Structure formats: structure tokens, C-alpha cells
Amino acid sequence: MMKILTVVSVVLVFLFTSVYGQGTKKTLGGSSTKSTQENKVETQKKTMPVLPPKSTEIKKESKENKTSSKAKSAKPIKGRIASLSGIFMGGDGRVSKEEAITMAGKGDPIVFVVGEGKRAKIYFVFNTDGTFGGKNLAKYASNKYVGIIGKKTSKNGLNFIIAESIESMD
User: Is 16 among the domain residues?
Assistant: First the structure.
């Protein structure tokens, strides 16, 4: 009998607290907060979408056109074509056009070198579509100087150029 009474009282306490807990919740400071369902209803009522004015869209487009025109008229990066393995083996990396084309066909990296001596920087060249530009560089390996128009970036100590165009500067 005592067990039944205890179980019934526990169930009643549980039901009372669960019903009471749905309406409001007490916080440590003593203030009560509304339930999450009521909060959702209130936030849905308060938020209204705000559309940006049409004039800002026109300004953004004109800014994009200005930056793309600057990129097209940008000064080319001047350097030379070299074999990466030739540079690492202690040479200057210079190769002929035929050697560069066969090396690029095998998958050996053809790179772009800007500067001379200790100040020279080695750049890996990629096309704007994301493919490696070694085969395009190999076509200009016989030139003394080559110009690349594109964006220079550097990540984890490696230098990259995203080439828009490659030109001979001889």
C-alpha cells in the first residue's frame, strides 16, 4: 500500500511540474521567461524582410566593371620560363621550347621565375579555369622574357599566378 501511494505521488508531482514548466520558466535572477513556442511566434511577427535599394545594385555593378577593366589594362609580370627540377638540381632551370614541351607532357613542372639571383621568386602558374599552366608556359620557353597578366597570390610559402594571358616580351 505504501508503495502504491509513493508511486502515485511521484507521478502527480511529475505531471504538475511538467504542466507548470510549459507556461513559464524561472531563471536564476527570479524573472520568468516565456516558452520557446511563444518566443517563436513573437520573432516571426517582428522580423520583416528588408529589400536593399535598387541604386546600390547599380553601384556594385559599376564597381565590378571598373575592377575588371583595371585587370585587363594591368601591367604584365615580367619573368622567364624555367624547369623546376632544373632549378632544384643546382642550375638556373633554363630549357629550350622543345625540352619544355616534352617535360610538360610528362608532368614535370614548368614554372615562372621573376627576378634574378637570390631575390628570384618562383611562381606556379594556373589558368583562370583552375588547370595548371605548365603547357602554356612551355610554348614560351625559348623567349628571354615573358609577361603574364594575372593575379599573384601566396599560400603556405608557395607563390602562384592565376594567368589571364601570357605574352612574349622579347
Answer: no
pLDDT given for residue 125 in this prediction: 95
Q: Is the pTM of this model over 0.85?
A: no
27 in a structural domain: no
Does residue 65 register a pLDDT over 60?
Answer: no
pLDDT tens digit sequence for 134-156: 999 999 999 999 999 999 999 99
Evaluate whether residue 145 is within a structural domain.
Answer: yes
Q: Would residue 18 count as lying in a domain?
A: no
Q: Which domain does 128 fall in, by range?
A: 76-168
DSSP string, the chain: -HHHHHHHHHHHHHHHHHHHHHHEEE-TTS-EEE-HHHHHHHHHHH----PPPHHHHHHHHHHHHHHHHHHHTPPPEEEEEEEHHHHHTTS-----HHHHHHHHHHT--EEEEESSGGG-EEEEEEETTS-B-HHHHHTTTTSS-EEEEEEEEEETTEEEEEEEEEEE--
The total domain count for the chain is: 1
